[in-house]
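Quick review question:
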């Protein structure tokens, strides 16, 4: 039986900062209201991924010397809240994997409506799954062989998944933010010193004294690397917008700004 934890979580990512793990910790602390079951941080120095995940609240998971061991100039973090599915460490995010393109880490807020179909398809091809979260489907699709000779499999993956999602993806060289074409879940872009930040809500930027730059648009893919920030828009511009009203009335922090409006 497949149970998929879903709906509301907090995602955070940072690129180009020597204290990436520490700032991610504070970012997750600000997003703690979006998930209290588990949390995780994965960092990269461009060559090696280091990760730590645990059950419970952010301050309890990342105590002592743990943050000092998470070396790297970029990081991705996640706080988890599930409405269904098992609550255990195996399902904690970010999820990580190795493929021909190198190491990948994925943090996901939302749920995929076609996850079961995609999972069955991948399993029929021999793909093995280690968790019961729909987010692992995204990780597995990203690791599949390129389509139509394209080196980057990201756009193909985004076209295959359906549902409500905001993603922060980290590779060995890039930090990537993705928002579903309808814009159900929030995601914003910020700047602290010379580093770029992605976060579910602007309150996470405030805590690390980052400047709010803009929101990631519905259906947009934001790619951050040493050359700066670039944008990919693989969906038609006329796609219907459908932001989840519960972000305003239930889930987002009162001091966040979403869609140009104070919560």
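Suggested answer, residue by residue:
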């Amino acid at each position: 039986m497949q149970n998929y934890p879903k709906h509301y979580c907090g995602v955070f990512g940072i690129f180009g900062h020597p204290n990436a793990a520490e700032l991610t910790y504070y970012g997750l602390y600000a997003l703690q209201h979006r998930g209290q079951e588990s949390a995780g941080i994965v960092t990269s120095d461009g060559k090696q991924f280091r990760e730590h995940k645990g059950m419970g609240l952010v301050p309890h998971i990342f105590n002592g010397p743990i943050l000092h061991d998470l070396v790297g100039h970029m990081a991705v973090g996640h706080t988890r809240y599930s409405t269904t599915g098992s609550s255990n460490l195996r399902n904690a995010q970010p999820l990580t994997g190795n493929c021909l393109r190198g190491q990948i880490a994925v943090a996901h807020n939302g749920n995929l409506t076609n996850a079961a179909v995609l999972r069955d398809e991948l399993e029929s091809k021999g793909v093995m799954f280690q968790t019961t979260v729909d987010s692992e489907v995204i990780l597995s699709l990203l690791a599949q062989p390129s389509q139509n000779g394209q080196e980057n499999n990201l756009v193909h993956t985004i076209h295959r998944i359906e549902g409500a999602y905001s993603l922060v993806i980290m590779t060995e060289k890039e930090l990537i933010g993705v928002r579903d074409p309808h814009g159900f879940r929030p995601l914003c872009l910020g700047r602290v010193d010379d580093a770029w930040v992605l976060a579910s809500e602007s309150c996470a930027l405030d805590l690390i004294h980052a400047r709010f730059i803009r929101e990631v648009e519905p259906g947009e893919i934001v790619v951050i690397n040493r050359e700066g920030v670039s944008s990919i828009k693989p969906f038609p511009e006329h796609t219907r917008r459908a932001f989840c009203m519960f972000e305003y009335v239930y889930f987002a922090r009162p001091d966040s700004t979403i869609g140009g409006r104070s919560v």
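Why it works: The domain at 10-257 is CATH 3.60.20.10 (Glutamine Phosphoribosylpyrophosphate, subunit 1, domain 1). The helical segments are 20-30, 58-61, 66-69, 115-124, 135-142, 154-160, 202-207, 246-251.
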